[in-house]
Amino acid sequence: MKSTTVADISQCLLNKARTEQFAGYDPFDGLNSSWFKRLPISKDSTFGLAWIQLFKCSPINLRPWLGVPKARNPKGVALFILGLLEEYQVTKAPALLTEAEQLAQWLVTQRCDEQIWHGACWGYHFDWKARAFFVPKGKPNVITTVYVSRALHQLGQLTGRADWVELALRSGDFIADHLLTQNEIHRYPMALSSS
After folding, report:
1. Residue 138 lies in a domain
2. Up-side HSE of residue 59: CA atoms within 13 Å toward CB?
3. Which top-rank group of organisms is this from (predicted)?
4. Is residue 40 part of a domain?
């Protein structure tokens, strides 16, 4: 019986991601459903929350049947970049850096408008609903922003891309201007968190 190693599992996962061009599903992407958008009740807050829970809790993947497309997630792409950089540190395979740079170029195109948000920031590629609030597609958040910034910073330092390092550091402006209060950090900008 063949033993499966962590390296085997990692390679299998990376190969699958490459096949899918780093696009996939997210536990919270149910509101991207083309069926949901056509339902007259889709604007109802409670129904939206229940719809997301249906996708999260179903033992089968309903997304292909209910029109939720696979898509790239900026946070997910950032995590793949960080993984590619870890692998590069071990193997020194130049193709890993090339792939990470291609993904980073995509991330740069996905950032939120800096004129609105006063700093580099990123959000999710789908609307999602929580009990307390609704978050529209693309609204920046601290989690996605921090992972993307970390990936761009590490890659920029490794490849000498000062523009990526500088972009990553500008995320601090977004966090300081929109998410920090005197005693805590918020996941979403307070002024727009109830939109």
Report:
1. yes
2. 0
3. Bacteria
4. no
Instruction: Provide the sign of the torsion angle of the four alpha carbons 27, 32, 36, 42, taken in this order.
Output: positive
Task: Provide the CB-side half-sphere exposure for 31 (13 A, CA).
Answer: 22
SS3 content of the chain, % helix, strand, coil (to 5): 60, 5, 35
Report the predicted TM-score, pTM, of the whole model to 2 decimal places.
Answer: 0.87
Domain ranges, residue 169: 72-192
Angle at alpha carbon of residue 86, lines to 84 and 89, rounded to 5°: 110
Q: What is the DSSP letter of 123?
A: B
- Mapping DSSP to helix (H, G, I), strand (E, B) and coil, where does residue 61 land? coil
| 133-151 residue pLDDT tens | 888 999 999 999 999 999 9
Is the residue at 17 inside a domain?
no
Cα–Cα distance between 76 and 151 in angstroms, integer?
11
